[in-house]
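[worker-b] picked up task from shared queue
[worker-b] task type: protein-ligand structure
[worker-b] ligand name resolved to flavin-adenine dinucleotide; SMILES cross-checked against name lookup, match
[worker-b] sequence length check passed
[worker-b] input payload:
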Amino acid sequence: MDYDFVIIGAGVIGLACAEKISKLGHSCLVIERNPGFGWETSSRNSEVIHAGIYYPQNSLKAKLCVSGNRSIYEWCVKYDIPHRRIGKFIIAVDENEEFEVEQIFENAKRNGVDGIRKVSLFDFEKAEPNIKAKSAIFSKDTGIIDSHKFMASLEELAKKSGTDFAYKHKVVNIEKSNQGYELEIIDPFGENCRISANYIINAAGLDCDTISELAGINVDKACYRLQYCRGHYFKLNSAKRNMVNHLIYPVPNKSLSGLGIHVTIDMAGDLKLGPDTEFLTERTQDYTVNEHLKQKFYDAAQRYIPTLDLEDIQPDQAGIRPKLKAEKGEFRDFIIKEESDKGLPRLINLIGIESPGLTASLAIAEEVRTLI
Ligand SMILES: Cc1cc2nc3c(=O)[nH]c(=O)nc-3n(C[C@H](O)[C@H](O)[C@H](O)COP(=O)(O)OP(=O)(O)OC[C@H]3O[C@@H](n4cnc5c(N)ncnc54)[C@H](O)[C@@H]3O)c2cc1C
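[worker-b] inference finished, payload out:
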């Protein structure tokens, strides 16, 4: 056996698992097709530390977001990772949305979210004089993080505990062996090589379903099939960077496919609008932000930032959500599962790890630890 554990994918989830597992003394290899960590979804997100407000009670998303929120702040303090507990307002822009904001508040309470409270309109307008709202709630534990430095700290600690990293290597096949698994890998020179492992952790993000299929799982039957959902961002001109002081979120759509076009602030203090939701018919990693989306972003944001001008916003980045297919738009939870019941013992699948995956990363790694 070459390794106790092979982790497929060096996004934030694979890195968090590597750090956790190697600390327990297991030999561990992370295989990643890109030249470094976090080249895909983990570097194309809002970098928001969520509080766990919206997700259904008892879902993994709710549970792991709430515990992951606490763990990630502790980590940031311990390892000196730049972050800000900046706080977020969820607002009702008109009367029709007031009931929904109330329901979001109740849901947050059910999920055990700390630090969420109703605010008076007077206090809200004092905090955010440029934002129009009918009512608002405030989450003080929603924040922002330098996700690159966070991932770098995970990689460094995993390496210190003995994890090996094979960048520019792609997993192309998985076979079950007597003791575990044989993985076929293409190296940077296009050559095939083989590695054996006792455990496999599938943290392959946008290809988590492909990896499951390589291991022999009927992905459609297991309901593991992904549908890519792109989220675009527009940034505000730097002259407007002081017009918002906290993260501002309108009410999301019912299916939670996205949280509505909201305002985020990054660690450099720049303001961004987004992400929106665009379900893709093809499985390509196309990160184009089309200029024609500008009017949609403007209309959405102008509802609550009345002084915004069309010229204030410019196309920025995009990311792709690894969404589990939901035929009727129903809520789909994270899947974190050891696959003995499919005849694949010691294969741990992490499927559909979309938002709040960054926030929940340390809690997800802890959940994986309980499965080994
Ligand atoms: C638009 C957007 C906004 C978001 N905002 C937030 C937010 O504000 N807060 C939050 O908590 N979460 C947010 N998220 C979610 C968060 O970004 C993800 O949950 C998280 O990054 C997922 O990490 P991952 O490691 O699972 O996936 P990835 O980062 O995609 O990593 C998977 C890795 O697996 C590798 N891989 C795949 N197949 C193979 C193979 N065959 N061989 C080798 N390597 C392979 C890939 O190259 C990739 O690097 C957002 C997501 C999106 C798309």
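[worker-b] attaching auto-annotations
[worker-b] The chain has a mean pLDDT of 96.
[worker-b] releasing lock
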